[in-house]
Amino acid sequence: QAQLVESGGGSAQTGGSLRLSCAASGRTFSSYAMGWFRQAPGKEREFVAAINWSGSSTYYADSMKGRFTISKDTAKNTVYTVYLQMNSLKPEDTAVYYCTAAPFLASYGQGSAQIEYWGQGTQVTVSS
Fold first, then answer.
1. Mean per-residue pLDDT, 81-105
2. Which residues, at least 6 apart from 69, have a Cβ–Cβ distance to it below 8 Å?
3. Which residues pair with residue 118 across a beta bridge?
4. Pairing relation of β-strands 18-25 and 80-86?
5. How many Cβ atoms sit within 10 Å of the Cβ of residue 113?
6. Is 40 exposed, middle or buried (0-12, 13-18, 19+ CB in 10 A)?
7. Minimal CA–CA distance to 9: which of 24, 20, 25?
8. What is the mean pLDDT of residues 63-87?
9. Residues 52-82: b if buried by 16+ CB within 10 A, e if exposed
10. Would you say 97 and 48 are in contact if contact means Cβ atoms under 8 Å apart?
């Protein structure tokens, strides 16, 4: 069964850093793009960043460029791990962060409509 499991959420101060991890297992995610969305209280879910299946191309929301970096590990026993390094954190980055998978990197340019797999989410809280 396909499964995405996030870890690494928690609390940070303004200007601090956190790294989120997502382990994708249970099926062959080798050809899938993977990425992150987030949802803050009372706000709509928004796209954060995505990476293609080979790790050679990335795509970021404008507000995350220069602060967040997405990367991907090579598979270990068919488990693919994607990371989101978050630097220079701001209180407005406080949200639940969701790991996702979609057939193509371009899928992430269509909002969440083409996202096929979602993790359970991990909370990130940034205090001032």
1. 96
2. 49, 84, 85, 87
3. 100
4. antiparallel
5. 7
6. middle
7. 20
8. 91
9. bbeeeebbbbeebeeebbbebeeeeeeebbb
10. yes
